[in-house]
Amino acid sequence: RGRILMPKVIAAFQKEHPFVQVKLVETSNEEQRIKLLNHEIDLVITNFTEDIPGVTMQDFYDEENVLLISENLLDNIYGRDKEKVLEQVNLLGHIYPLKDCPFVLMNSDNIAGRIGRNILNAAGFTADVKVTSDNIETLLSLCIDDCGACFCPELLVRRALTPETMVKLRVIRLGEDAKYKIRFGYAKQNYQWHAIDEFINIAVKSLNDKAL
Questions:
Q1: pLDDT tens digits for range 120-175
Q2: How many CB atoms within 10 Å of residue 32?
Q3: Measured distance CA(10)–CA(64) in Å, rounded
Q4: At what angle do helices 6-16 and 194-209 cross, to 10 degrees?
Q5: Are β-strands 44-46 and 179-187 bridged in parallel, bridged antiparallel, or unpaired?
Q6: Contacts for 50-54 with beta carbons within 8 Å, 24 or more apart?
Q7: How many whole angstroms from its chain centre is CA 194?
Q8: How distant, in Å, are the alpha carbons of 48, 66, 85, 95, 123 from that of 92?
Q9: Are the beta carbons of 158 and 65 closer than 8 angstroms?
Q10: CA distances in angstroms from 19 to 9, 15, 183, listed in the order given
Q11: For residue 115, what are the contacts with CB-CB under 8 A and spacing of at least 6?
Q12: What are the φ and ψ backbone dihedral angles of 183, each rounded to 5 degrees?
């Protein structure tokens, strides 16, 4: 979200409020919540899974994680059986048929990492995890280079990858368990800083100007 959404949102916000400095804090979702409750940051954009006392939340958009696997990796592992394996994934509704595939995963304190591990656990096999990282772009590059399958927000796939790159990848949808809401969160207080409301309004407008 930092790379895909924030540049346009911040640029639009700066045009309206040129004297307000924006400090963008890119860290794990849990760290963001802690910093918000400690009044170290003013506004968080994340997947709030439950209400938090003292925090006001507002829906931003619906997000979905997908599984990306390079066509080369599928060919190397499954050969002529590749399409049959992928058909089994669709028929069964889980990724057990991909048990022989290596994975590159986000760390578990990130949404994609948590969802990926939940989906792997539900599939009932111990994944061959080659790399873990907090940087989804690094993992995407590894996935494109045939190092392993990657759980990734579909928004990032559509906004960050070129058509030339997409033809090298297979996108597998993971059902309702991979979907969640992204929300704004800010501390409840007697006086609401006007800049927070303005930033939220501009972010929503920017999103609607170019539909996800």
A1: 999 999 999 999 998 888 999 999 999 999 999 998 888 888 999 999 999 999 99
A2: 20
A3: 23
A4: 130
A5: antiparallel
A6: 52/185, 54/187, 54/188
A7: 28
A8: 30, 16, 11, 8, 10
A9: no
A10: 16, 9, 26
A11: 65, 151, 174, 177, 178, 180
A12: -130, 155
Q: Is 153 within 8 Å of 32 (Cβ atoms)?
A: no
* Number of alpha carbons in the 13 Å side-chain half-sphere of residue 130: 15
pLDDT digits (tens, 9 = 90+) for 46-58: 887 778 888 889 9
Question: pTM, whole model, 2 decimals?
Answer: 0.82
**Non-local CB neighbours of 32 within 8 Å, separated by 6+ positions:** 25, 41, 44, 46
Place of tokens 């938090």: 52
Sign of CA dihedral 35, 47, 118, 174: negative
Query: What amino acid occupies position 77?
Result: I
Tell me the residue length of the chain. 212
* Residue 212 pLDDT greater than 50, yes or no: no
Angstrom CA distances, 102 to 32, 54, 58, 157, 192, stand at 30, 42, 37, 20, 48
